[in-house]
Amino acid sequence: xxxxxxxxxxxxxxxxxxxxxxxxxxxxxxxxxxxxxxxxxxxxxxxxxxxxxxxxxxxxxxxxxxxxxxxxxxxxxxxxxxxxxxxxxxxxxxxxxxxxxxxxxxxxxxxxxxxxxxxxxxxxxxxxxxxxxxxxxxxxxxxxxxxxxxxxxxxxxxxxxxxxxxxxxxxxxxxxxxxxxxxxxxxxxxxxxxxxxxxxx
Length: 201
Ligand SMILES: [Zn+2]
Known about the structure:
globular; alpha/beta; 6-stranded parallel β-sheet; TIM Barrel; 36% helix; two-stranded parallel sheet; 8 helices; binds zinc ion
């Protein structure tokens, strides 16, 4: 069973993290793990064509390797956020290494937004992060990275997206083929339902 929506009690456990936003009729597209050559350009062109602003949670190492692509994300008016230096898993990395990874990434990514890779971040590790960052989670996960989830199922779930929802797609190789199919269809569904798209402040 795949949960597209975050179970209702999870935000109660982590109330300081941002799971969704209070808005009238706006939803928030976010893209994790980029920049990724071949895909980021495609996403940027698509967003430009639809006049949509989004938020990109980038991996420091990828920014270091693809500075032009990263600059393009910013120059096209999107927001950026820190997603660690090497996509470390919060439950498997010790505290100081994890904090160092965020700090290291911040030398490439100037932002007060942070999203933990895999959404995994034990409570005892977050106090320090909260000093410098808003921790942005999500309320709807596209499962674009999981090839065992049929696209029809994902599109069906997109019909349940509500105002203020933060949606996750992936700007990485694993998701590449599916993002190109899913993103336009999800955006169509949401546009037809009258939603606007915003970036996270
Ligand atoms: Zn990630």
